[in-house]
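Lab channel / #folding
Pinned by the channel admin:
"Please post every new chain as: sequence first, then the structure tokens as a reply. Keep commentary short and put observations after the output so the thread stays searchable."

First post following the new format, from NK:
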Amino acid sequence: MAEPPPHFTVVFETDIDGGAAVEVAVSTADAPLGAARLYELVEDTFFDEAAFFRVVPGFVLQFGISADPDITACWKDEALRDEARVLSNTAGTLAFATSGPHTRTTQLFFNLADNSEKLDDKGFTPVGTITGGFESLAEAVNPTPGDKSGVDQAEYEEKGNDWLLAEHPGVNKVLRAYIK
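Reply from TO:
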């Protein structure tokens, strides 16, 4: 895979609010490993048709499990080392999810609010900042109202969008992601 340029923009075309696009400015200086992984995943079309499987209003909007379980399986054990946080988890940043030290793989979330006090010291390293489309994210359908954990991630990883869309009709998706 090619090295990412020092600065690039990722466009996430979504079906939120009638088809909003979210643009994220990324600098490899802010999170070199995370930026390179994001670039690679976008170039590999990993996020195309991936659902926003965890919606916590006023907190985060999470995605990053492929629509195709075979693709998810290829990346499941490709964890990134942690890296120093340069950006803070403020409203409008995009960060990798983590379940502990050195566990970042493919899951990302948009910070819907200033979550710096909750997340900055817990290993959540933002990789970019939204430059367009932030307002539309508040309109994302919550597939599990009242449950901050979101959908059953193990089921989604194993069965992909066929399962997810049957169990949670109306869930929003990234239709396509690309480098601008």
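NK: The chain has a mean pLDDT of 95.
TO: also worth noting, The first strand starts at residue 7 and ends at 14.
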